[in-house]
Amino acid sequence: MRTPEAPRQLMTLKIGYLDGRGHPHVKIRVWGLSEQFAQEFEAMIDTGFTGFLSIPITAAFPLAITLFGTTSYMLADGSTSPKLLGFGTVALEDETAHGTIVLESKSSGLLLGMEFLQKLKKALVVGSNGVVLVDDHVIPMPPAPAPAPLPPTSPPLPPLTRPSDEDPQNKSK
Amino acid sequence: MSTNREFPTPSAIAALGQKIYEERYKVALEENQQGKFVAINVRNSEASVGDTPEQALEQARAKSRDGLFHLIRVGFPSAYSGSSQTAYDTQDWVFGR
Fold it and tell me: Number of folded domains in chain A?
């Protein structure tokens, strides 16, 4: 005798892709004041970025993003860098989230961070052939551990030197 | 609202916001608001605290429509962090570093 199947939970799949270097990307639309300013971008999902969205400032020009001021951003080498900060909306297919947007004043691509995944309640699943974002309630998760202790306040790191800076041949030029 | 105001550079807003935070708010906020976000209005030195960046900034903007804000995360070296950039990636178009 067959037992009745348990009702299948609804699971929304958002499909992305891996770029040539294996980084996960998805297509998003971004806008500021009104959706009439929306433009489509391919954004990298960077789980090392704690924010919502980072976008090159020149890409943000046509989007009517509301500027609020500045913030500080810690880079991979431990140095901090000031950034302009705005407010806008990101749409992933038919789902949208509002958040603070870091306006990147260096040449870069768009980055979606952990705050974006948390706002849309998505889990990132990366396979060898591609990327999916699924509703995180369908992924069994253990109870969240207690928050980790905050990092101690440490003195700033000394400035980095590139090998070319120490090359005596360069100094003589 | 005055229309004849000074408009500091983005670098000056960030530096002034950090200075105001450290001189006026850091000690008190780090005692019991760890992990929260604080928006410092560099025009009047007022601080607005929220659980999220949006909360802090919206509160700050509600208090002062013409404010210039610097966002800080209490107890953290920066409001945001990333893993894909270093200081030497490329020239900064706005802050010039």
Answer: 1
pTM, to two decimals: 0.79
Integer Cα distance of B74 and A88 in angstroms: 23
Contact A71, A52 (CB under 8 A): no
B78 closest CB neighbour out of A52, A80, A113:
A80
Task: Report the range of poorest mean pLDDT among A64-68, A159-163, B15-19.
Answer: A159-163
Supply the Cα-derived Rg of chain A in whole angstroms: 20
Establish if B90 belongs to a structural domain.
no
Question: Could you list the residue range(s) of the whole structural domain that residue A70 is in?
Answer: 26-122
Could you tell me if residue A102 is inside a domain?
yes
Q: Is residue A54 assigned to a domain?
A: yes
The verdict on B18 touching A (C-beta cutoff 8 Å) is yes
pLDDT-derived band at A142 (thresholds 50, 70, 90) equals confident
Q: Does A57 contact B79 at a Cβ distance shorter than 8 Å?
A: no
Would you call B84 and A113 a contact, using CB atoms and an 8 Å cutoff? no
Residue A171 pLDDT level (bands cut at 50, 70, 90) = very low
Q: Is B4 on the interface with A (CB under 8 A)?
A: no
> Which residues in chain A have their CB less than 8 angstroms from residue B75's CB?
150
Give the model's confidence band at B95: pLDDT under 50 very low, under 70 low, under 90 confident, else very high.
Answer: confident
**Considering the domain boundaries, does residue B3 fall inside one?**
no
Of A120, A133, A46, give the one whose Cα is nearest residue B80: A46
Question: ipTM score here?
Answer: 0.84
CB contact under 8 A, B86 and A77: yes
Contact A101, A85 (CB under 8 A): yes
3-class SS at A164?
Answer: helix
B50 pairs with which residues across the strands?
Answer: B37
Average pLDDT in the B65-89 region?
Answer: 84
